[in-house]
Amino acid sequence: MFKWNRNNDADNKIQNMEKQSISVARRKQAQSLRNDSKYQDTIRQRKEEWKKRHSEFDKATAKTEINNIKSQIADMQKQINASLEKEKPLEKKVYIDGTGTDEDMRILRQSATERKKMQEQVEVLNGDMLDKQEVYKNEAQNRLIKAGTIEEIKLSKKMTPDTVDVLEDTLTKLKDKYGIMPKGVVYNPSKVPDATVTYNWVDDKIYISNRFNDINNYADIVNKSEDSLIEYREKAVINKAEAEIELNTQRMAVRENLMDTLTHEYGHFIHRHANADYVQKSSVFGAKDLGGKLINGDWKYDINSYYSANAKIETAKISKYATESPYEAFAEGFLAKEKGQEIPESIEKVIKEAKVKAGVKNIANGQKNGILGSTKDERILDVHPIGKINKEIYKCITDDILTDEVVITNNQIQHIMDRHPNDYERFSSYFGEIVKNPDYTIEANKPNTALLLKEIKENDEIFKTVLRLVASKDNPNYKNSIITFMKIDE
């Protein structure tokens, strides 16, 4: 028999009515939100932010945004400084001389209020710039790790995009050239209290300080250091050995730019890996051959020892910093060789043997992109691959082009660095794009040579590059080679 439960039926009706009421309220709320312009703006902003976070990183745009913020900060700082200078005579009248008027006081207060607002804006802009720089350096870190260039890399968010780019390029070239790398490059100022960068023999990592954050500012540090050499040489002592060291010293250190400091520390890494027993100081590879003497458990130069004193005199030919110890003699010598410079044969021999024992790639035979030889003394020059050209683009120069490969030699790199300071360090990452897609290709005044002009849509900078093309009458082992490069200042 069917029994009707009146109470349950009533409850169901009430529940249905409540659901309908809620549904109506939700529709009204949705309609209200659709008509709410502020709410819709918020939604659109969130969508844009989501797209930015999940879209492919645009390196050029990010760099431009950071540079634009930096320009804004510089402009506002100039206004702040101008305001302070303008206030000085008024402050003297009002607070010191007591001759200021009410109008002077009003102007002072207004100026201080406006300056405070600008300072607050500068703080906000600084925060935005650091946030964008953190994203920029994180992307570079991810690329290096993903490419297998290095196991660990942690950079400071204060590091400028130019510095990040050159660091990434330097680490990639070191890995490509030698095949082995330290375990990491880590920003940790506490481990580099009195230097720019240092290699730790125990944990096999290179540590960098705040000095490593701006490749352009470091140039000022180099200049000041080299200027101090004049004062240093004037204090040469009478002691014969010390005097010879002073006279042999032609520079404070080999480094000429920020990335040179990294290569110097990479030299320590090679030195450390030349002997598996790196913890035992007595077993440091080549320390004795470098003229070192084991004193209190570590290798040092002993000016009172004939052998060690003469070794230190030879080391001074590299730099003053090289005379600090056999460790620094090795690293400074390594850097000098990387820059294509001559060093004492005894030190060069130790470095060559250390490379072999450390397990670096066979550099002499491993250059798949071709070796450019010197026709005078048949020495092998270090070459670095740049990329490939489209031969069709260069037919306006010559139809006779043997290869599409492009390289640059250490000699030409040094030529660029000597004549156009900081251009190579800042812009060498553009070489591949310049030779591949030049805006203008002009026949130079030498055979088979092209003058290339290229505008990079990053701060609207224009570059001039001279490229020597390899023809059938040239050595078949040669590659197309960059002769020189510079940024054109309009």
**Rough outline:** globular
Average pLDDT for all residues? 83
Radius of gyration, Cα only, in angstroms?
A: 32 Å
Strand content: 5-15%
Biggest sheet character: 6 strands, mixed
Number of domains: 4
Which class of secondary structure composition applies to the elements?
alpha/beta
Per DSSP E runs of 2 or more residues, the count of β-strands stands at: 12
Strand order of the largest sheet: 7-8-12-11-10-9
* Uncertain regions spanning at least 5 consecutive residues: 364-381
What are the secondary-structure elements, in order, as H or E? Answer: HHHHEHEEEHHHEEHHHEEHHHEEEE
Number of helices: 14
Termini distance?
101 Å
Helical fraction: 40-55%
List the helices and strands and how they pair.
Layout: H1 6-35, H2 37-54, H3 59-97, H4 102-146, E1 152-154, H5 161-178, E2 184-187, E3 197-200, E4 205-208, H6 215-234, H7 240-248, H8 258-272, E5 293-295, E6 298-300, H9 306-315, H10 326-338, H11 345-358, E7 383-388, E8 405-409, H12 410-419, H13 423-427, H14 431-436, E9 440-443, E10 449-456, E11 461-468, E12 480-488
Parallel strand pairs: 1-2, 2-4, 8-12
Antiparallel strand pairs: 3-4, 5-6, 7-8, 9-10, 10-11, 11-12
Helix pairs in contact: 3-4, 4-5, 5-8, 7-9, 8-10, 10-11
